[in-house]
Protein 1
Amino acid sequence: MAQALQQAQKAAEAGETPVGAIIVLRGRQVIGRAHNQVELLKDPTAHAEMIAITQAAAAVGDWRLTETVLYVTKEPCPMCAGAIVLARIPKVVFGASDPQHAGVLDAREVIGGVLAAECRQLLQDFFQLVRREKQSESPDAIG
């Protein structure tokens, strides 16, 4: 999860929602590593999980990722959950819960709350900064 948090920090530094993901093969080898790139790529599907899944599939030469574990700093959204199911990833470990999308991976082995405070804090800090920046850019802002 620490490596996923490093990816999330890269996303935050780039102005992206700070979510990072790592995919590990057979508990040993990282075969996918990504952070959100929605703004950079102007692509609503460029979530950390989606990019990491694509990398992992390329690394193993198969779309079936049956011997992997996905570590992600925020509970996956429905799009990413669908990709996780389709890729046959059997285990997901996430940090911060997402009340909007809770339980979308009930059919998988899912472990939540790993480094949750750190993952949550990164997300909260990022969105507080975004809100402050938007407020200071607002033509209604007094200043």
Note: Residues 8 and 18 are 4 Å apart (CA to CA).
Protein 2
Amino acid sequence: MSTPSEAGHDRWEPDLSAVVGERRQLINLAYRLLGSLAEAEDAVQETYTRWYAMSRQQQAAIESPGAWLTTVAGRICLDVLGSARARRERYVGAWIPEPLPDRTEWFSGRAGDGSGEPDDPADRITLDESVNMAFLVVLESMTPAERVAFILHDVFRYPFPEVAGIVGRTPAACRQLASSARRRMRAAQAPTPATAGQAGLVRDFKKAWEAKDIKALVGLLDPDATMTADGGGLVGTVLRPVEGGERIAEYLIHIADKAPGLTLLERTVNGRPGLVAQHSGITVTVAAFSLTDDRVTRIWAVRNPEKLRPWTEITQN
């Protein structure tokens, strides 16, 4: 025979499962809003902390736990974005969104750990066009309110009345925020969809870099290409973007000369073909690319070790 407390627990279990099951969706949302997996996980943890701080009677009174969790997570992210703008103004050098770790080797389509099994989807961010690096970089140019309204409505398809409840504005104001965000995206020449030839282009780039073939690198880079590096002041790197295909090629050869024993790995970076540089088994750089036709137009090289810990962990596991 069940005790009253046990019976109550049984009645609560389906709702508890539904609450826990929202975690993946919340991480997906928070990463796009914040551009940092670590900050996204913190925001979701804070969301659940607030949920479990309520009494069971308070929780039971909430008609839609998923909507409640999304609202709270969105508001937390909005607050984090506000403070993040001030922190990033003090950041040493360029700030690039934290790249998502992925075991998948895009040239084979199999898991990098050799098992051939995909990661648990509940623990991974959905990789689509809204997490590629070019898209996330444009998001960084938006105000916190624009970014939240745009992501909630245009990416996650929340109606504006629901967005208004999260952003704290009227539905009409949120519609204007999303419209402004779309103009920013268009003005920045938002990234084109991935194509089958991109993997081959990045592979050719890798081979030319490994061979220190500056002529080949220049041929693969758009003459007006730009490379931005993020070291966070913790490792040596250029503090300003390197502009022009020839200058980028020269800089890459300089890096190769200064770091003998560097290993380049073909990896998926935010859903697109990218490169991971390792030294003695430690990930030291994750490079994301923007490609147009048969040329590399943008390179984002994340070197801040605080953003790369997950990449070393998945390689060593």
Note: Residues 1-14, 104-124 have pLDDT under 50 and may be disordered.
Protein 3
Amino acid sequence: MSDLVAEAPELSWADVVARRVERHGLAAPSAGVPAPVPAVVGAMCGAHAQVLSAAELSVGLRTVEGTRADVRRALWEERTLVKTFGPRGTVHLFPTEELPLWTGALSAVPAGGSLSAAVRMSARQTDAVVAAIGHALADAELVVAELGDAVVAEVGDWAGELVMPAFGGMWPRWRQAVHHAAHRGVLCFGADRGRQVTYTSPHRWLPGFRPLAPDAALAELVRRYLWAYGPATPQQFARWLAAPRRWASELFVSLADRLRPVRLAGVTAYLAADDNAPPPASASSGLRLLPYFDAYGVGGHPRELLFPGRARERALARGQAGNMPVVLIDGVVRGIWHQRRSGRRLAVTVEPFQRLTAGRRRELDEQVDRIGAIQEARPTLTLGTVPVGPHA
């Protein structure tokens, strides 16, 4: 790979931003009624859904006429989307048909974590809890307490010991295996039961489902990541997955014949070898409002180019992207924003980091109207300082 790296061409940041914006569906939102929700979600390698309303907005903004109702229909009626644990152990939406890929890849990522030895389960205990979760959810949708009772009944009282600090209280030991169960394909989210989340088995939606073989799944995941977020380094891929950097570097070396090195801002990064598409004809993508945890910002690097100047101070939390909704201008973060809902009224405050031209102001008005339509609310716009801090 060293000879190829020495000859790697330099790419301009403007061209890189233009290709990412286009591939994320932010340059020209997808048309179609109903909205092509699974395709939109697949193109950005999953929609972060720790806050489901933010995921609904991420998806809706990448369509021409889609609303939050389209996302909910795809999740709970059509079952073309699945809500589960994705990269970094965080909640994501994925196209249901892509679940074999995601489970095959994520289950092969080396486990990390910061739990103490007294709290952490052994590999054998984790396997036992994952198996118990699979048995309990095979034909049911259970809230956390019900699932915990079933797990403890199968593997023993040790799994129910309250040892994990969480949200001001203590969680039972077995809950550290929930995202492992999701990554191994035996758990996903079911429909809420009142104010409580439920878990169920994806096998109920995908009969015959099984994770893709790890090597094939990881190779395809790298290809898709580079398509949406490339060029990127192994270290950036590792950060996106919350995986060990050395493991990611070794993975990229093993895929050397499928990768093409380039240079971006003086650093060697990679694209998929078969990704020879020219940059979009126009680098301008206009003004876009992206919600909390939108995939474009969370997966995008280098941070210093994507979040330049004041954006680094106002839109990042200790270097972490996604904790503030952002204003994109031509694919780069140039402001932050906030929304507050009261009934069907939606108050939107936008804090731009530069003066908005008349054309940009029209685009902003259009984005605010679009956000209102997606969320089935009546929006108003105020330009000024956003009064809230980053999402925890």
Note: The first strand starts at residue 10 and ends at 11.
